[in-house]
Amino acid sequence: MSQLAIELMRAEARSNRLHQSESVLSDTMHKSLPVAGYKPQSSTKVDLVNHNKEAEEHILRSLDALWDRPEDDIDYRWLTIGIDLLEQAFMAINRSIFKPARVTLPSDKMAVGAVDAAREIA
User: Fold this and answer.
1) Greater confidence, 81 or 70?
2) DSSP string spanning the chain?
3) Per-residue pLDDT tens digits for 84-102
């Protein structure tokens, strides 16, 4: 069995343990990032994302070892694509937990004001 398969199995096992103990974790709210669209997060969500970040790092380090293999053994172009997609996958998973919202733009407020003004005229 490959090292990557072993790491994936370990990450899944840790994830299962984390989900089983999720109800025990405290739900202290953490301040949101100073980024538009982000909101305060519970300790449970922060713990889940930190767990995912650790699992991602284990997998990425396993993939880093592939760069040391001979060029005729590995297609580095596909390795790069795989790493990029893996990073995107973890980003999507973490966004599914934190659920950042879309932001309101200054032009949105002007458009709402124009709609309200038009309603008053009608």
Assistant:
1) 81
2) --HHHHHHHHHHHHHHHHHHTGGGS---EEPPPSSTT---EEHHHHHHHHHHHHHHHHHHHHHHGGGGS-TTT--HHHHHHHHHHHHHHHHHHHHHHH-PPPPPPHHHHHHHHHHHHHHHH-
3) 999 999 999 999 999 999 9
Amino acid, single-letter form, for residue 115: V
Tens of pLDDT, residues 12-58? 655 655 554 444 445 678 887 778 888 899 999 999 999 999 999 99
d(CA 4, CA 100): 31
Residue 92 has which token pair?
């999507």
Predicted TM-score (pTM) of the model is: 0.62
Q: Which long-range contacts (CB under 8 A, 24 or more apart) does 32-37 make?
A: 35/100, 36/103, 37/100, 37/101, 37/102, 37/103
> Domain of 106?
3-121
- Number of domains comprising the chain: 1
Q: Are 4 and 63 in contact (CB under 8 A)?
A: yes
The residue written with tokens 């990073």 in the block is 87
